Amino acid sequence: MEDKFIFLDGAMGTTLQRRSLAPGGIPEMMNINSGDVIEKVHREFIEAGAEIIYSNTFGANRKKLSRWNLKPEEVIVPALKIGRRAAGDKLVALDIGPIGEMMAPIGTLDFEEAYDLFQEQVLAGRDFADLIVIETMADLGEVKAAILAAKEHSNLPVFVTMTFEKDGRTFSGTNVSSFGALAEGLGVDALGVNCSLGPKEIYPIIKKLSETTTTDLIVKANAGLPNFYGEYELTPEEFGNEMYEISKLGVKYLGGCCGTDPQYIRTLKEKCKGMVPKGNRQKIYAVASPTRFTRLDSFCIVGERINPTGKKKLAQSLKDNSMEEVLSMAVAQKEEGAEILDINMGLPNVDEKALMERAVTELTGIPDLPLQLDSSKPHVLEGGLRKYPGIPIVNSVNGTKESLEKILPLVKKYGAFVIGLTLDEHGIPKDVEGRVEIGKNIAKACIDNGIPKEKIIIDPLALTISSSPESGKIALETLQEIKKLGLKTTLGVSNISFGLPERERVTAAFLQQALLMGLDLPIVNPGDERIQEVIATHRLLQGMDPNGEKYIKKYGKQKREAPKPVKDQGFLNPYDAMTKGQKEDLVEFVKLRLEDCSPMDIIDEDLIPALDHVGEDYEKGNIYLPQLITAAATAQKAFSHLHKVLGGELTGRDKGKILLATVEGDVHDIGKNIVKVILQNYGYRIFDLGKDVSPERILETAREENISLVGLSALMTTTVESMERTIDLLKEKLPQVKVMVGGAVLTKEIATEIGADYYVADAKEDILVAQKVYRREE
To answer: To the nearest 5 percent, what fractions of the chain are helix, strand and coil?
Structure first.
């Protein structure tokens, strides 16, 4: 399969829906009771030109199958045997879709639980499949759990694709470059994009991916979007023409997703006849969080402050198993200019591994900067590396045999960057030559372990000049020599001035000299004004600040216009607390305000306006779903405190009851669950009926609970009809009830056609609808 296009199959689900699958039916169940139908679809795709077929196991995880009392192997094994009978000499992929629940910190699904669910699927199918395909993912943490489960429990090739919105991000905010970096770093065999969009909309997304990774690329596009009748907008000819343009980007694996039957694959193969995938793509090495892709082409500021050594407040917070101080320090350093955050959880008598795991999970949402995991303990590093949904830096390895042997395999496995300290079994050399030699040895060991040179960072070690007057000179000269080797460098800059008076002056001067010698990653306190001055002037003088814009913005007479403040109280306002996830600070704010204001004034004048401000940020794309949910959860902490103060007096005040349900026949509820979390944290009382809910049950609950607003979700085209029946029943029996609808298959036009009062495209719009409905009732 080298040097040629490989054609994948099309959509199993929508093909079945056009045939024998009843409205609301579950495709995976047909592996057990209608295997001949599944086999026929597989054969038709192969006859149309597919060389790899995906097993009919997209939703075959334990959580989704539990409602039928089935285990994954009871669905997966027959599905793969059916695929094998149909495939002949073609390949059969074990198809693994998303679990259907939100990962922490947005939701409650823990990484290890997700890993266990994927592991069950891999173990069930590995002996019957030729490869494993992980598809239609939207959360980078879930992607990582699935990839690790596949690679740790099979020797099969692993393909992975995520589903993106038109802005090039998933609904959780993951950008396509971060996805590419993580998947490639974990060693997948192919990666790409599937579902949600047609080929034309996917084109700029896959183009960006093709410019950052050299791993083989996959595209399985939808046939456009469906209309009310479940008909997709693109014909096979139109689909083939648009996919042909994508093939020019060097995408090797081409197929179809929703709405594409065998004729689409046949046309696609004809369009690409005689072509070969484009080569000469280049890889970009970058550290990454789900929402940030940070190249290390020029120097990047690493914030040093999340380290409990000498910080009593942080140390106590960690001992109390609280991440409040960690989050506060992280947000502050981001605002002060840090681009990467160093995370050290080293304290005596604590579970350092558990704290590291919690920290990397919490810091995924806020402040969303890439992380540097700071520990010399392999088990602590692996805990953080495993759960971090991005590409971090490991700080650190050293030149000792034990350190190299234990830590470098972890760096390779998880695709991380690594810092090498220039010390070994004999300690820290006192001369430049000795440190350079250790740097060379570390670099060689990294390369021998499969870690590319671009991911190696050497620390020449800055020791305090108060006890070693030559240490600054030695560190700088070592840095110069390391740069000549083509390696990146870092320094814990403030170490140089330890024990000296006015040490900030010495630190700033040392930083200035190191930057001139090519220092790549200065580890500093970004809140130090002298450090900020050095960084701003260095960027200005080295042409890194076009037209001096950043310098003028910081130091010019014309100050940046601050965001319109929400009701302020001392140093904190609710908007800041919500966007930074500072729950305890917001509660303290509420307590102070209660001394002068009524609870209702705090709600009306402080909390609700701040939440509205957050919602506007989300609507404009300034923040993403993790930040929105964190802000709402922070606000809920304040609401909860007010509830405790006044008992039940707040219930129903400026809020209301909302019923949510995924309609009958549809078992997809992740979107509904996101809406639930947001609305709950805005103070609404939610009645969540779950998924696959009948119209009659929705009506009965709405009547019994005196509901004014019902939210309905549908992801499958076949269940839009069920949504329409539910709306008709509500309008007939409870005409005063308003209905909002959402889901991937819906548009504003379809919503109007089926009788909904409101169409909501995202969580922010649900909030606006709720506010409108309950404002009208006042």
So the answer is: 50, 15, 35
- For 33, other C-beta atoms within 10 Å of its C-beta total 7
Q: Which one, of 427, 360, 410, 369, lies nearest residue 388 by Cα? A: 360
Using only C-alpha atoms, what is the Rg of the chain? 28
Residue type, 414: Y
pLDDT of residue 104: 85
* Contact (Cβ atoms closer than 8 angstroms) between residue 156 and residue 187: no
Q: How many CA atoms lie within 13 A of 127 on its CB side?
A: 6
Per-chain mean pLDDT for the chain: 91
| 219 φ/ψ angles, rounded to the nearest 5 degrees | -135, 125
Give the bridge partners for 287, in sequence order: 294
Could you give the CA distance from residue 373 to residue 353 in angstroms, rounded to a whole number? 11
- Residue bearing tokens 């070969």: 276
Q: Are 119 and 149 contacting, i.e. CB atoms less than 8 angstroms apart?
A: yes
* Burial of residue 575, with CB atoms counted within 10 A of its CB: 0-12 exposed, 13-18 middle, 19 or more buried: buried
Q: What is the 3-state secondary structure (H, E, C) of 132-171?
A: EEEEEECCHHHHHHHHHHHHHCCCCCEEEEECCCCCCECC
**In 493-629, which ranges are E strands?**
521-524
pLDDT tens string 584-605: 889 989 998 898 888 878 877 8
| Gap between the Cα atoms of 500 and 516, Å rounded | 24
Which two tokens mark 350? 């604590």
Tell which residue, 194, 185, 106, 103, has the closest CA to residue 147: 185
How far from 450 is each of 295, 400, 408, CA to CA, in Å? Answer: 20, 19, 9
Cis upstream peptide for 105 (omega within 30°): yes
Tokens linked to 593: 């305000």
Q: Which residue, chain included where needed, has tokens 């996919």? A: 243
Q: Whole-angstrom Cα distance, residue 771 to residue 460?
A: 58
| pLDDT tens digits along 325-367 | 999 999 999 999 999 999 999 999 999 999 999 999 999 888 8
Cα–Cα distance for residue pair 414/187, rounded to 1 Å: 9
| Longest pairwise C-alpha distance within the chain | 86
- CB neighbourhood size of 275 (10 A): 12
- In terms of Cβ atoms closer than 10 Å to its own Cβ (0-12, 13-18, 19+), residue 152 is exposed
Residue 145 phi, psi dihedral angles, 5° rounding: -60, -40
Q: State the DSSP string of 244-296.
A: HHHHTTT--EEEE-TT--HHHHHHHHHHTTT-----------EEE-SS-EEE-
What's the Cα-to-Cα distance from 540 to each of 236, 497, 550, rounded to whole Å? Answer: 54, 26, 8
CA atoms within a 13 Å half-sphere pointing along the CA-CB vector of 557:
0
Peptide bond into 392 cis (omega under 30): no
Residue 118 structure tokens:
């994927």
Q: How many CA atoms lie within 13 Å of 121's alpha carbon, on the beta-carbon side?
A: 35
**Distance between CA 767 and CA 49 in Å, rounded?**
47
Among all chains, which residue has been given the structure tokens 């890993």? 115
Per the listing, tokens 């334990």 go with: 62
CA dist 626 and 364 (Å) reads: 8
- The DSSP-derived string for 445-476 is HHHHTT--GGGEEEE-----TTT-TTHHHHHH
Query: pTM of the entire structure?
Result: 0.88
Joined tokens for residue 184 = 């490639």
> Which pairing describes strands 293-295 and 286-288: parallel, antiparallel, or unpaired?
antiparallel
Helix (H) or strand (E) holding 117: helix 111-125
What CA–CA distance (Å, rounded) separates 108 from 99? 12
Model confidence at 680, in pLDDT bands (50, 70, 90)? confident
**Closest among 678, 670, 310 to 525, alpha carbons compared:** 310
Question: What is the C-alpha separation between 333 and 574, in angstroms, rounded?
Answer: 19
Q: Which residues pair with 662 in a beta bridge?
A: 713
> Over 334-358, what HEC string results?
HHCCCCEEEECCCCCCCCHHHHHHH
